[in-house]
Amino acid sequence: MTDLIMCAHCHGQNPPGSKFCNNCGTPLQPVTTRRCPHCQTANPITNFYCDHCGNRLVLEETSKRRETNDTNETGPKAFSLPMRNAGDTVELTPDAVLDWLKEPKESSKQPAPPAETDEADTEEADWVEQLHKDQTGILSIPETGLLKTVDFEGEVLENDDFADLLQLGSAADALPDWLADIATTAETASPPLPPAPEPEWLDPAAEVGMDEVAEEETAVSPWLEPDDIRLTTNYDWLTALENTPPPKPTPPVMPPAVPPPILDPDLPAPGSQPVAEPVASSPPDEDDDWQYAPIQTESDLPDWLHELQKPADDDQAWEALGNDLVSNDDLPDWVQGMRPDDDQIESDLPGVSDTGSLLALDDFDDLTADLGEGDLPDWLDSIAPLPSEPAAKTAVSPPSPGNNRIDSPESLTAALSALPPTPDPTANLAKGDLPDWVQALNPSQAQTKTQETVQKQGPLAGVSGVVAIEPVIAAPRQAQLQVAAFTITPEQQQQAELLLQIVRAGDLPATERHPDDIPGISRPVRLMLALLLFVAVGLGLRLPPAATTPTIMPGIINAADTLAAAANQPVLLAFAYTPALAGELNPLAQAILAQLEAQNSPVLTLSQTAAGTAVAQTQAPNATPLGYLPGGAIGLRLLRSCLASPCDTLAGKAISADQQINAVALVVLLTSEQEALVGWVEQVAPAGVPLLAVTTQSLKPAAAPYVASGQLAASLNGAADLLPFQQHTGQPTAAAQTLLQGRTLGQFMALIVLAVGGLIYGAGNLQLGKRQKGATK
Amino acid sequence: MMLKRAIPLAFAIATGLLTLVALLLQLPALYTLLLGWAMFLATIALLLGVLNLLSVHLWRIAYPGETSRFYSVALVLGMVLVFAAALADAGHLTSNSLNLVFSWVQAPLEAAFAALLPLVLLFSGFQLLKRQRTLTAAVFLITAVFTLLYHLLRSNMVSQPPLQAALLQLGDWLENIVALAGMRGLLLGIALGTITLGIRILAGWERPYQP
Predict the structure, then answer these.
(1) Other CB atoms within 10 Å distance of the CB of residue B83
(2) B30, B33, B151, B168: which to substitute to probe chain A, counting the most A Cβ within 10 Å?
(3) What is the pTM of this model?
């Protein structure tokens, strides 16, 4: 979606990024700008880099996000007022206001579109804040194991998991109002809760209730719910859930991260707990075939399960398995070092089979019994019981080597029965030795404490074992709202009033200016001044020229000598002025052309302006035209190449034989523009051809440095140099004297006007200042 | 967006560096070729500008809106007439018709507007004296009066030998020292700005080719 820029002057539509109106040419003020943090330049909102300094305007991450969201702009737009500079009198029109600003009520009624925020931001947001915001609609709470997605309007869910949610809360009197409302609604949406279910981690029976958990999970499929699903529509499985009777309230159980695989009940699972039975009431969904497909045959089982299916009570199989697992190659070196020599094969050393190659697992227990005390390593000696600890020694004392060999369960039972009763290891410990946090884990105390916190009122009335809610969670937003007071600055107030004015008002009538507010001088005075100037100039042109003897300056002589040096050689005249200044430069051009004609120099004409070609054609009709030279400095650079060396083309045009550019002995530039003067001096003068500048009088300060540096051979500046040049070259001076006379009288009149005006307003200012001082006193 | 920004940037930097190297190493064949391309593009841009101007005013004639279509009609007619005159001259149907249009229309109009310049300057000076009562206004007044007086004296139409000699010496000093120093500083500033701009364009910090 592209936002066209509306012109404040003609209301024309302009494409984004336009700086000037395509309709009327008025500079466009960007409605929404992105100010450069480096140079404070207001850039179009579409810019990633500053137009002025090139500084990056958008962070890398933001720009990437913007680039990805360009095609899907659903988020709220940034708010910014139309910019008005100081002194800008252009009235702001409602057309320049964004549409959404014009319809604040409609937009406020509509639900806010989902804000485009980072997932990380969503995760980091306070869930209680989110809960508060969504209390009138759909409550979405990030799943933390106990929390579920709940619709308080009863639209979708009637779930016992709400009890889990409420167990995170505190007593009703500690709840904020909004949470109390939620709880009240929840009472209508969920059946009464049984009193005081113990937490899962305190209830050992929870481990046994895995079947119930499996049933519940299979019905609701909570592990398939992402963290932030908003239930806005009824799904089929939820409809089915509504039709099913509500399950009995169960203690909150952490759902497993991965659903347990449902196996064939006929298959044994050695060494594991009973596997949950498949739920017959929940037909397998098409998408969940991987989950519910029962394993019918043994061929469906993986190989490792085949291995586990082998009868484990077969002693031979276990022995073979042990032999496979424990071989000489697998034994560490230190164990292999304990292997007896061949002559000791027949000995009673434990761990050595009759074959001498493998260790029997049955005999491995006899290893410690057959070892002598001297054979024990040091670290085993260090943990040997001391003689002063009879009880511990009795409990863990190893059998003495050699004689007390225990080789049957009966003998072990008899030995154990002969032992004295083992005292309670905690009997000698005082209660004071246990830290508080350990005592808090005492199940009996925990039970007592839980019974003390039975809720008496509120939505959790009758519920015990409720974990007290943290105060910072109980009412965090209220405190912040009360503390955070908005301070409106006068500037903000003014901006708000301006915004209201823009939104409410229609087309504002143009403000009429009071006659006294018109800047400048009054119309009669202006007419009188204009009339005086015209009269002065007219008199100067009409009166017979006064006999004056101008002073011939060194620059005039230098210019005449430069022209004379190009006698009988081609001279290039560049017309770089428009007819606007023809009144000042045409007489100079005629004087130059007359001098060149007098010294028999062929003239070539060239221009870099469209009007300059016409001027050249009118002023030098007998010259050889080279036409229009486009490209600015680039064209001048190409001309320089042709001046320095022969060339066939200039600016794409073929050069004929009579256009002897490379034979030009002098370049005469007639210009009224400083840019043209600088361009010709910098691009053409290095070619080695002398350059004579004929300029207006206003360009004399610009030409003087180049004359002083030698880049310009000479310069003639304005009508003031015309008369001396003509007198020095012997040309007739009557026309030049008349022109100079009219110009001089006009300057004289201007001088008089300025002097009189300065005196009048200066005196008026002094008088006004005295009045103000008197009023102050 | 990446291609839209990176490709022009890379092309501009590469072309600029190539031209710079060709100019520094005096490779006229290379820089003449590049400059020829640039000039061709400039000519095409000029033609496109003319066509854009014509289309804008044709659109305004068709859909004038709140603005008057009179000036648009005059502009389009002027363009068509001048173009037709040029074609007639080129086809030898007429002779010098284009110069006639220039001499009888463009030159007087431009001269008339230029003649308003002294009036505008005079009124502005008058207004400045009325509205701005600052030191700058006083300096402007003194400078304007002195410059006009200096040129009056330089024209030898006012003959007061003692005053003329002193004012002419002062005027020459101001023109050859003060004004020359100021103009040299301005030219040096332009040169430094040009160098800086060239470096910024070559480095990609300045992108005048991007809106």
Answers:
(1) 13
(2) B151
(3) 0.48
